[in-house]
C-alpha cells in the first residue's frame, strides 16, 4: 500500500491548539496525520496559557520558538479560563489578534454554546470525536478548515461535523 505524501499547508500556517485533555490532543494529532497534512501544531493546556501564548508573554515570549498562529483550535471547557472567555478576550484585542480565525472543538452540542461561540467570532464549531470511528470524519474535515486561515474573513464558516458522520 502506497502512503500518500503529506499535504503541506501554505507557508507560515501555524496552528495553536488550546486543549486540556491529553487524550483529545492525541486523537487530534492522529486525525491530522491520517489526513496527510503537515503543519506546526503548538498545544497549550488551558485558557490562561492560550492568552499568554497569543500575547507572547511569560514562557511564550520568544516568537522564534512560539510563533504567532494563523489558526486557533479552541476547546470550550478548560480550567482557569474557558474557551468562551478566550474568545471574548481575543475579540477585544487590537487588529491582528481580533481577526485570528478560531475553530471551536468541544464535546458540547448545545445550541446555546454554538450560538455563543459564533457570536464571539468562532468560524466553526466542531463536536469532538466520540470514538475511533469518528477520526475518519474529522480527518476529512480538517483539510477543508485549515486553509480558512489564509482566506479573507468574509469566508463563510464550514458546517460543523456531527458525531457518527463519515
List the helices and strands and how they pair.
Blueprint: E1 7-8, E2 15-18, H1 22-35, E3 37-38, E4 41-44, H2 47-55, E5 71-75, H3 83-91, E6 102-106, H4 111-119, E7 124-127, H5 135-145
Parallel strand pairs: 1-3, 2-4, 2-5, 5-6, 6-7
Helix pairs in contact: 1-5, 2-3
**Which class of secondary structure composition applies to the elements?**
alpha/beta
β-strand percent reads 15-25%
Report on the biggest sheet. 5 strands, parallel
The count of helical stretches stands at: 5
Mean pLDDT: 75
Helix fraction, binned, reads 25-40%
DSSP strand tally: 7
CATH architecture: 3-Layer(aba) Sandwich
The CATH topology: Rossmann fold
So what's the overall shape? globular
Radius of gyration: 15 Å
Order of helices and strands: EEHEEHEHEHEH
Q: Tell me the name of the CATH homologous superfamily.
A: Response regulator
How would you explain this protein's 3D organization?
This protein is of the alpha/beta class. The chain has 5 helices and 7 strands; from the N terminus they run ββαββαβαβαβα. It has a single domain (16-149), classed as Response regulator (Rossmann fold), CATH 3.40.50.2300. It has helices spanning 22-35, 47-55, 83-91, 111-119, 135-145; strands at 7-8, 15-18, 37-38, 41-44, 71-75, 102-106, 124-127. The protein has a 5-stranded parallel beta sheet. Helix 3 links the parallel strand 5 and strand 6 (102-106). It starts with 6 loop residues before the first strand and ends in a 21-residue tail after the last helix.
Amino acid at each position: 500500500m502506497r502512503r500518500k505524501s503529506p499535504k503541506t499547508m501554505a507557508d507560515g500556517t501555524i496552528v495553536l491548539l488550546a486543549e486540556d485533555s491529553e487524550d483529545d490532543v492525541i486523537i487530534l494529532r492522529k486525525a491530522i496525520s491520517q489526513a496527510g497534512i503537515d503543519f506546526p501544531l503548538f498545544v497549550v493546556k488551558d485558557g490562561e496559557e492560550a492568552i499568554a501564548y497569543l500575547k507572547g508573554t511569560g514562557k511564550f515570549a520568544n516568537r522564534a520558538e512560539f510563533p504567532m498562529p494563523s489558526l486557533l483550535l479552541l476547546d470550550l471547557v478548560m480550567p482557569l479560563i474557558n474557551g468562551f472567555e478566550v474568545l471574548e478576550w481575543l475579540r477585544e484585542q487590537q487588529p491582528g489578534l481580533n481577526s485570528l480565525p478560531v475553530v471551536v472543538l468541544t464535546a458540547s452540542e448545545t445550541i446555546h454554546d454554538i450560538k455563543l461561540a459564533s457570536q464571539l467570532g468562532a468560524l466553526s464549531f466542531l463536536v469532538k470525536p466520540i470514538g475511533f470511528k469518528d477520526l475518519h470524519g474529522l480527518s476529512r474535515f480538517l483539510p477543508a478548515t485549515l486553509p480558512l486561515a489564509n482566506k479573507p474573513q468574509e469566508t463563510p464558516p464550514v458546517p460543523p461535523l456531527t458525531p457518527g458522520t463519515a
